[in-house]
Design a protein that fits this description.
By secondary structure, the protein is of the alpha/beta class. Helices cover 57% and strands 9% of the residues. Strand 3, helix 21 and strand 4 form a beta-alpha-beta unit. Keywords: Ion transport, Membrane, Potassium, Potassium transport, Transmembrane, Transmembrane helix, Transport.
């Protein structure tokens, strides 16, 4: 069989927000837990809110304003205030953070949550094993009568495919966020050099920004643990200094700025500017950048810690900072092209430049790390070709690194800076990414309300209608920027979606072939009963994708080798649509009938590490579990004899066998199969092998080739 469901490192990390699952809400009632949440809230400043808190650097410069007036700036500030309040506070902090999948956030986690509460997934492993998945039944409410909407999705394969497409598109757009956030954040920060030094050219800013990002990407392999203690102080300095400057600007330039909180300024803004006002939404949407990453990073910290940090520092900081910028611009209406550095007082210009540059680097780091996590999540769910994913910290499961993804991101980020140059074009692309992820989250969250939470229809409507109208307006505005840079995230997303669909389609066809041609126990006994087939000394781990039956490669192996080891253990790695699997449920053992033949299932959630407890390789831990299984299920002398046979086989030698399967596409196949399956074979040929992820010695590995005709 072709073991193709895991990252290529014994330390594969988590996805979406890959740290340990947050403790259940409501348990932290004593003072020590409150103090812990406050500490975690401080730490979130350096990890979760990077893109959000650096947004004042590029929001105003991204707008294409034409002869703005005081009324225009008041309307723009009112739009930003209510966008931050409604989307940031109401949608994400108060609602979306509750839609976690055992502590994990993001579109894939929400998709997983929906799949666990209704049979609406189309992932082969999910639908194939759902009826026997006792772990999922114990962790969900599968026994509850599904809602009408849930029944509709269960009956409609088209609806399920659309749901999957939405989850995949949200993930692809978040990866695009990981490309654009470092580019626009660092470029906007370094652009501050052009104020004091007018001779410092735009090209020099771009080259210096690219150099900083290259250095940042080259340091990724060392992990963030060694410098992460600086993240929170840097972001705290940024978060608390910018509103102080904002307050100074408010009193100095326009003390009545907060009258713009009244929504009637928004109405007057659109009545006065009409089409141009609608187009300016493509710039104002950037004020909420990072909220989508905040939700995806939920697994790094508890929900309560994120809520405390956002409501006590991030939200008031942004409100005051944007108020101060707007107050300055009302008195300096043409300075919007450098809306941040122009409103910084000269005496503190250079300290703020240093803090802004460091904050931009930290913000870039947070999105790069989130991209690694999202890619890992896709790999373990079998939607993306295997890439190397390693842990960079022995203590923090969420710190993961992928060299292939890292260097691809580096090339794309540098290409964006050097190719787009100006911040406006990057801002246009950034706006597309941000609002598309948010709109997808709105739709998925509505499904969660209806199918899982069973929210009354009136409350669902009060959530769905306003946010769809608001975010739909933003989407319509940013789509006008497609030709001005907005095409980039769509291009990246389409490439990623093509890769993911090609990989998924090929994997599905392989699984279909295996299920049709699987070896059952009766056929296995017939093969072993043949006189030419011998049971040879030793222990064999035979890797299989199939639970109900054995891989067709087994029959191919026995017929050609005319042998089977005295102890043969068929190992299946099963990646479940849950965040984490309890250690007691990780390795499941059963006898398969013939003497010395066992089945083993190793279960992982998408936020689990492939390294098992104890530090041993997988083979050693499977043998240990098998020994315990024999002792518990067999009496007295029989157990001793079976354990002795197990020990003797292990001493005689261990071999790990996997199939090296290839899809053979015949001439009678349709053109779609020819294109997609050959594309899959190309991806399969360049991706990493899954077997080294299990820590097996190279000399013990054996590959058996076989063609699957489709």
């Amino acid at each position: 069989m072709d073991l193709e469901a895991g990252p290529d490192s014994p330390n594969g990390g988590g996805g979406g927000g890959p740290a340990a699952a947050a403790p259940p809400v409501g348990r932290e009632t004593d003072d020590s837990n409150v103090q812990k949440d406050l500490i975690l809230a401080y730490k979130t400043l350096g990890v979760v809110f990077g893109g959000l808190v650096t947004s004042p650097l590029y929001v105003y410069p991204s707008m294409n304003l034409s002869s703005p007036t005081e009324a225009d700036y008041l309307g723009i500030y009112s739009i930003m205030f209510w966008t931050l309040t409604l989307i940031g506070v109401v949608k994400y902090v108060c609602i979306a953070l509750n839609a976690d999948d055992y502590g994990e956030g993001g579109t894939f986690a929400m998709y997983s949550l929906l799949c666990r509460h209704a049979d609406i997934g189309i992932l082969p492993t999910k639908r194939m094993y759902l009826e026997e998945e006792t772990l999922l039944r114990s962790q969900s409410t599968m026994g509850r009568k599904p809602s009408k909407l849930g029944k509709f999705f269960e009956k409609s394969i088209t609806a399920r495919r659309v749901l999957l497409f939405m989850a995949v598109l949200g993930m692809c757009m978040l990866i695009g966020d990981g490309i654009l956030t470092p580019a626009i954040s660092v470029l906007s920060a370094i652009d501050g050099l052009r104020g004091p030094f007018p001779s410092f050219s735009k090209s020099a800013v771009e080259v210096l920004s690219a150099a900083i990002l290259i250095g940042l990407f080259l340091l990724q392999k060392y992990g963030t643990s060694k410098v992460s203690f600086l993240f929170s102080p840097i972001m705290a300095a940024w978060t608390f200094t910018t509103p102080i400057i904002g307050i100074y600007s408010i009193f100095h330039y326009y003390p009545g700025i907060f009258k713009a909180i009244s929504p009637h300024y928004i109405v007057h803004f659109f009545l006065r500017n009409k089409k141009q006002g609608w187009q300016l939404l493509g710039g104002t949407v950037l004020c909420i950048t990072g909220a989508e990453a905040m939700y995806a990073d939920l697994g790094h910290f508890s929900k309560k810690a994120i809520q405390i940090a956002f409501l006590s520092s991030i939200y008031p900081s942004l409100v005051l900072t944007y108020a101060g910028q707007t107050a300055y611009l009302i008195n300096n209406v043409d300075d919007f092209g450098d809306g941040f550095y122009k409103f910084v007082p000269r005496p503190v210009y250079w300290p703020m430049f240093v803090i802004a540059t460091l904050a931009a680097i930290v913000a870039s780091q947070s999105l790069i790390s989130a991209t690694f996590s999202v890619i890992k999540q896709s790999v373990v769910l079998d939607y993306f070709p295997r890439v190397k994913v390693v842990h960079t910290s022995p203590h923090k499961e969420g710190e993961v690194y992928s060299p292939e993804i890292n260097y691809i991101l580096m090339v794309l980020c540098v290409g964006v800076i050097l190719g787009f140059g100006g911040g406006k074009a990057i801002g246009n692309a950034f706006g597309v990414v941000v609002i598309m992820v948010m709109l997808i989250t709105t739709f998925l969250l509505t499904l969660v309300m209806i199918i899982i939470w069973r929210t009354p229809p009136v409350l669902v409507g009060l959530y769905f209608v306003p946010f769809v109208i608001m975010e739909g307006s933003y989407v319509s505005a940013v789509f006008t920027k497609i030709t001005e840079g907005g095409w980039l995230p769509f291009a990246v997303s389409m490439i990623l979606a093509l890769i993911m669909f090609g990989w998924y389609y090929g994997r599905q066809r392989k699984i279909e072939y295996e299920m049709t041609n699987k070896v059952n126990l009766e056929l296995l006994e017939e093969l072993l009963a043949r006189p030419e087939v011998q049971r040879v000394p030793g222990m064999c781990f035979f890797y299989s994708n199939i639970q109900d039956g054995l891989t067709p490669v087994l029959g191919h192996y026995i017929k050609n080798m005319s042998s089977l080891h005295a102890v043969t253990i068929f190992v299946t790695l099963r990646y479940l649509l849950v965040a984490k699997v309890d250690q007691r449920e990780r390795i499941l053992i059963k006898r398969l009938g013939p003497n010395g033949v066992y089945g083993c299932t190793v279960q992982y959630g998408y936020a689990d590490s492939l390294s098992l407890a104890g530090g041993d390789d997988l083979g050693a831990q499977v043998v240990s579990c098998l020994r315990r299984h024999i002792q518990m299920s067999t009496d007295g002398r029989s157990a001793e004899e079976e354990i002795a046979q197990l020990q003797a086989a292990r001493l005689a030698g261990v071999v790990h066998v996997r199939g090296k399967m290839r899809l053979y596409v015949g001439n009678d196949a349709g053109w779609f199969d020819k294109v997609m399956l050959r594309f899959y074979e190309f991806l399969h040929g360049i991706c990493r092998s899954a077997l080294p992820a299990l820590g097996m010695p190279l000399q013990q590995r054996v590959e058996i080739g076989m063609l699957y005709k489709v």
